[in-house]
Amino acid sequence: MTGLTQVPGKPPWRGHPAGWHPAAVARIPELAGELVRAAIVADRRAGASWAEIGRGLGISTEAARARFGRTRHPVRSGRSER
Fold first, then answer.
1. What's residue 8's pLDDT?
2. How far is CA 29 from the centre of its chain?
3. Do the Cβ atoms of 59 and 69 come closer than 8 Å?
4. This model's pTM is above 0.85
């Protein structure tokens, strides 16, 4: 946890509300989901099978297809597309 001690003690700009650290960290799961969807789209465009994608995610072919089968592009609006 050494890296956490290096987080600046002040907000990045004047007038920024208290709680900006937790608010930034709270977005990590959403951003990780977007990154996974973007990687899946890239792999599918490159010809990867659902079996290969499932293996990479540690899930079955069927689970990968069911979860990401309709993913067309990374979603930037913050809502899920499945």
1. 57
2. 6
3. no
4. no
Q: Which of 17, 26, 31 is nearest to 76 (CA)?
A: 31
- Do 80 and 33 meet the contact criterion of CB atoms below 8 Å apart? yes
Q: 42: closest CA among 60, 68, 78, 79?
A: 68
Q: 65 pLDDT band (50/70/90 cuts)?
A: very high
Percent of the chain surpassing pLDDT 70: 65
Average pLDDT estimate for 33-44 = 95
CA distance 20 to 55: 37
Q: Which DSSP string do the residues of the chain spell out, in sequence order? A: -GGGGGS-SS-SSTTPPTTHHHHHHHTHHHHHHHHHHHHHHHHHHTT--HHHHHHHHTS-HHHHHHHHTT--S---SSS---
